[in-house]
Amino acid sequence: MGCVSTSTVLLIVGAFLASAVEMVEALTIVLGVGIVRGWRSTLIGVGAATVVLATLVAALGPALRVVPIGTLRLVVGALLLAFGLQWLRKAILRSSGFVSHKDEDAAFRRQREQAAAARREERAGLDWYSFTVAFKGVLLEGLEVVFIVISFGSAQGRIGLASAGAAAAFVLVIGAGVLARGPLERVPENTIKFVVGLLLTTFGCFWGAEGAGVDWPGDELSLLGVLAFLGAASFMFVRVLRRRRLAVAPMEAPA
Amino acid sequence: MSYIRSFALFWWNFVVGDDWRVAAGLAVALGLTSLLTHEDVNAWWLLPLAIGLLLAGSLWREARRVS
What we know:
The complex is a heterodimer.
Chain A: H1 2-37, H2 40-64, H3 69-95, H4 104-117, E1 122-123, E2 126-127, H5 128-156, H6 159-180, H7 189-211, H8 222-248
Antiparallel strand pairs in A: 1-2
Helix pairs in contact in A: 1-2, 1-4, 1-5, 1-6, 1-7, 2-5, 3-5, 3-7, 3-8, 5-6, 7-8
Chain B: H1 2-15, H2 20-38, H3 46-66
Helix pairs in contact in B: 2-3
């Protein structure tokens, strides 16, 4: 029971945080366009992208149930590992000062400037710029959410739980966006990406190895062991890289 | 043709990302794990170890490139 709870909690937390961070980025794009050029075409773009994403989840979820669980875990584990390590690598580089932090406020200003400068073109009764930018923004950020929800959910046979985590993130981010009427620049995006990178890599490692035939000592409890190992290694990498950065450029290093 | 190219490029960036060596290393590590388990060696330790080494290598390369 305890083991099941561990993986369930990690599954929901992972789906929630990964979805929240992608939705913050999508919200910045949608707000930047909607505030400058009006909401009708922008929201139709958001709605169209949401329909495409929901269709993907509805179609892929049941289709994956026919794949043998061992094969599914191997493939999903490999994909999660590749994907999770990208997040983790970037978060470590940002934390150590080798890559600059993402600034949602600056992205919002840039989006507004581009929206104001774009010429108006009507197609199918819509402001085509607003529609396409909102559609693309939500679709591209949403694809990552769909990928995480499907891979997390299918490998554990709990797409519903992973979807619930993503839905909770959607409600929270949209609610906060409506209240703030601006981009959510105070969200500690890199910290969340760090945690999500760790969770994606941990699940990827666990399922990938299981799919390859490994029996984990302690079964699902070993998820915590892998998480602790990767967490400790990542913090050590941040410290080492910070020290290296200080040695190379002492005046530019962060406080 | 350019549509297919863009589509392939999108998925390459989506899955492989900035450092293809990490993705290739993961494939090798998973293959080795599978091989060892088929030889009755429960190599649960191999993948976490490989992840640590691949991540360290990738970070080191990027840090050297930037500085």
